[in-house]
Amino acid sequence: MPIFIVCCLLLAFLVKSQSIYLSFLLDQWVWMAGSAAAVLFLFLGWWKKLSGAVWHDGFAVGALSAWYGNWQPLFSRDAPMFYLFPLYYALLSGWLTLAIINKSARFDPASRESLIYLQHNLARFDTRLIACLVLASLVAPEHYLLYPSAMSLFIVRFTLQRCLEIIESQ
Predict the structure, then answer these.
(1) 164 in Cβ contact with 115 (< 8 Å)
(2) Residue 41, SS3?
(3) Which residues cross the membrane (predicted)?
């Protein structure tokens, strides 16, 4: 999810530096467009019109912009969650991409079998259902840890799914 990582780092920088461009992100039409983009990418992924990597990236970027624009006015201006959570998402996504997804083609047969077993028997949650949880968490700012938890689960689940796609393509 390279675009998501860049957007997270950019948002963290803008928030930490108190940039004048933050007011643009708070416009209602911007976060509503982010919400619409997230829903659009979710449905395009659900109907298999986009590759897994593309719809996950687009959904995550849309949800991030909707989260910031919708939640920031409800909290104090300098709340650390608005630059720490995007940094956390960027680090988590980057680390999982570099450490797991990029090396999944070189997994040994036992690791491949374990991943397939995990995917088919233990990981009962479809990524699209987790994406719906992310969208639902956007409308519950009083539960401020719900969105970060759902987004973390979405990122980890994407990693498992992407690794399986790479393994099955070989």
Answers:
(1) yes
(2) helix
(3) 29-47, 54-71, 83-101
